[in-house]
Amino acid sequence: MTIRRYMVIMLSVLLLVGVPISAQDAPADPPTEPDTTTQTTVDVEAVSYDEVNDVAARMYCPICEMEPLHTCRAQTCIDWREVIRERLAVGETEDEIIDYFVAEYGERVVGIPEDEGLRLFSFAGPLVGFIIALGVAFFTFQRWQQQNTLVADATTSQPIETTSIDTTDDDTDYRNRLESDLQY
User: Fold this and answer.
1) How far apart, in whole angstroms, are the C-alpha atoms of residue 143 and residue 150?
2) Where is mean pLDDT largest: 99-113, 121-135, 151-165?
């Protein structure tokens, strides 16, 4: 192969690789880090553990499955709680901090879905299920009560025949023998 042909092949490969890369959307603005260069007097110790845990309780550990961030002992969670403490010391709100973690690590780190539709479903779903269960229980109890009423009506509407007990001499003999056997 000649050098010229080699250069043409390399240039075409670079163009083929470069076109898809340049066609991609520009990346979203990265989440803003707290600016610690201009504020060197941020007192991180002024933020209490309760304030950090209030934010961390709304998030989940990225490593452990379904483990709240404020109770997890993984090193990643300890680091995340420290980031929360630093951001609170700078003056960010809880929602801003959670938005930072969602932008950085995805929606899997939040305890409540951030999507309005999912949030509505997660709160309304159990409520609707509870109302349906109450309705089923109500109608079931009504049906049982109606069946008991029908049974009670059926037993009271039929006359009960009473027959007198005819005691004969055979019964008297039997009773006497039974009593004598029981006395021993």
Assistant:
1) 11
2) 121-135
Query: What is the residue type of 133?
Result: A
Q: What residues pair up with 69 in beta bridges, in sequence order?
A: none
The DSSP code for 24 is S
Q: What is the pTM of this model?
A: 0.42
Give the residues across from 59 on adjacent strands. 110
Q: What would the mean pLDDT of 45-64 be, rounded to a whole number?
A: 85
54: how many CB neighbours lie within 10 A of its CB?
A: 14
* pLDDT at residue 96 greater than cutoff 80: yes
- Residues 6 or more apart whose Cβ sits within 8 Å of residue 67: 60, 61, 77
Residue 92 main-chain phi, psi, to 5 deg: -75, 150
Check if the beta carbon of residue 88 is closer than 8 Å to that of residue 52.
yes
State yes or no: pLDDT of 19 exceeds 60.
Answer: no
What pLDDT score was predicted for residue 137? 92
Q: 65 is written with which tokens?
A: 């499955």
Q: What is the rounded distance in angstroms from the CA atom of residue 116 to the CA atom of residue 43? A: 36
Angle at 103 between CA 51 and CA 39, to 5 degrees: 55
In order of 6, 24, 26, 162, the CA distances from 19 in angstroms are 20, 9, 14, 104
Region 45-50: what's the mean pLDDT? Answer: 83
Q: How far apart are CA 48 and CA 58, in angstroms?
A: 17
